[in-house]
Design brief:
This protein has 495 residues and is an alpha/beta fold. 29% of the residues lie in helices and 22% in strands. Helix 2 runs parallel beside helix 6 and helix 7 packs antiparallel against helix 8. Bound molecules: zinc ion (ZN).
Length: 495
């Protein structure tokens, strides 16, 4: 008999140190059938679920899906909007559904919920109990989720991405759906959660490097060798959230003895402790970076200058100027950079192509990302800023599908820099962002990248080397610079 699956999702990674809240207008909201229409074929986790469901002939009952780019704490209007809608829809269909499938991020903080997803799952379970119902709840999580005890206690199984950059987001949802399929045959499973004291910066949790690499390899071995283990999730956590559940955690879903699962997690935790130094990588100061660039004899392939402090994928505004300013002052040439600055993009749209324009660029969002810098350059191109991903498995697809909007955009150029100016901050996770605007990143000498890890699939293959640079911004890897209040005695640095 065909199964009825209620499908909903909310996707937001919340940077609680940013002053500006995330509002309803910042979310892309889909209701009912829109969820199916808009996600089919877009490379997102929801797309993966839709495909699996159609193969199994499941009947999807779509509820609501909301997603926004990483940014500040989600406001009350948005949290209420999601909850009212999901429960209104559940009330109508709950007695006909066989399961609930949720596509979540797992690091959302809203005005009234430090642990939005944990509280949501608890409310859903409470609702089902009141209606005298018991159906499996399976959820997809981002690897950066700050997982809480409530998320594990009130779900049947969570399944998280294993790759960072997240090239496996869609595939993760397919696997989660197959776990749900198994649950229809045998519903008896148990989950266990192991929180830890470690909060790792975004730069320390790429899966090509330890500690994540070593822990994931071991987790995979356990999954392979023990048929009772359904999954082990190695959760990197998201460090820019001042909440009690912030940080690295592990969880396991098993058909076997829960004490066995606990032993596995304890052993994985030991690997984390053994490799912990790699979780807090060192960065170059601006001066060190400039010296290193100067010492390169000849640049034949681009050098990446990674600026994690303004990691757009981590929530910062993408308008930090610290690094660009220093490069310009030091007379560097062949620079390609992207700055999010709606005001300057707008000014470009009012000018003529080939006109020489003068702008104060960047650092307009808040006081934490440098000062606007004066630039005189020729206007090369204006556009509506939309582009298709070159790599459909890009990390960006996990966040927003394969068709991306940067808002009204412009390209300006002088003898030092080619600058793409956007109106909607867009993480540098796919080369299509530049090539669609007529910029060939392969021709650059120096490319400024506002990211921590998520750029790697796109940019590492075209680069000769990369330097991580400790500049100014709220996604700093130096977590001691952030005013944490709610994390208790967690470890944010090894110094
Ligand atoms: Zn992530």
């Amino acid at each position: 008999m065909s199964k009825n699956i209620f499908l909903a999702g909310i996707y937001h990674e919340t940077h609680t140190f940013l002053g500006e809240p995330t509002k309803l207008k910042d979310f892309i909201v889909y209701h009912d059938q829109e969820i199916i229409i808009e996600n089919t074929g877009n490379g997102s986790p929801t797309d993966g679920f839709i495909e699996y469901a159609s193969q199994k002939d499941w009947n999807i009952i779509p509820g609501i899906q909301m997603s926004a780019r990483p940014s500040g704490t989600v406001d009350e209007v948005s949290e209420n909007y999601f909850k009212e809608n999901i429960f209104d829809k559940l009330k109508v269909c709950c007695h006909t559904i066989d399961a609930i499938f949720l596509v979540l991020h797992g690091a959302m903080v809203s005005k009234n919920h430090d642990d939005f997803e944990g509280d949501l799952l608890k409310e859903i379970q409470g609702f089902l109990t009141k209606e005298n119902l018991s159906v499996p709840i399976v959820a997809v999580l981002d690897l950066h989720a700050n997982v809480s005890e409530n998320m594990i206690k009130h779900s049947t199984c969570v399944f998280a991405y294993r790759k960072n950059p997240h090239s496996d987001a869609r595939e993760t949802a397919v696997k989660a759906a197959s776990i749900l399929n198994d649950l229809f045959l045998d519903a008896k499973v148990e989950q266990i959660h192991l929180g830890t004291n470690y909060i790792l910066p975004a730069t320390g949790v790429g899966t090509a490097n330890d500690p994540m690499k070593a822990i994931l390899e071991e987790a995979l071995k356990i999954e392979k060798n023990d048929p009772e283990i359904i999954c082990i999730n190695v959760m990197a956590g998201y460090s820019y959230a001042d909440i009690p559940d912030c940080g690295f955690s592990l969880n396991c879903c098993t058909r076997g003895d829960i004490s066995n699962a606990k032993k596995y997690l304890d052993n994985l935790f030991k690997i984390l402790e053994a490799k912990i130094e790699s979780g807090y990588p060192k960065e170059n100061s601006l001066d060190e970076a400039l010296t290193k660039i100067n010492n390169i004899e000849e640049i034949t392939k681009p050098v990446l200058l990674i600026e994690p402090a303004d990691n757009i994928g981590g929530g910062t505004p993408g308008d930090a100027t610290d690094l660009l300013d220093r490069l310009l002052q030091a007379n560097n040439k062949g620079i390609v950079a992207i700055i999010n600055d709606p005001e300057s993009a707008n000014a470009c749209h009012r000018a003529q192509i080939n006109e020489e324009i003068q702008l104060y660029i960047g650092a307009k969002f808040d006081v934490f990302h440098g000062k606007p810098i004066f630039i005189k350059a020729k206007l090369e191109k204006i556009s509506d800023g939309t582009f298709e991903l070159e790599n459909k498995q890009s990390h960006l697809a996990s966040m927003m599908g394969t068709k991306i909007s940067m808002g009204p955009s412009a390209v300006i150029k002088n003898d030092q820099v080619t600058l793409l100016i956007t109106s909607i901050k867009t993480p540098p996770m796919d080369l299509g962002q530049l090539t669609s605007q007529g910029i060939n990143p392969r021709d650059a000498k120096l490319i400024i990248i506002k990211a921590a890890v998520s750029h790697k699939d796109a940019y590492d293959p075209i680069a000769s080397q990369s330097f991580y640079i400790d500049s100014q911004g709220l996604c700093t890897s130096n977590l001691k610079r952030l005013p944490f209040k709610k994390i208790g005695n967690k470890i944010i640095s090894l110094d």
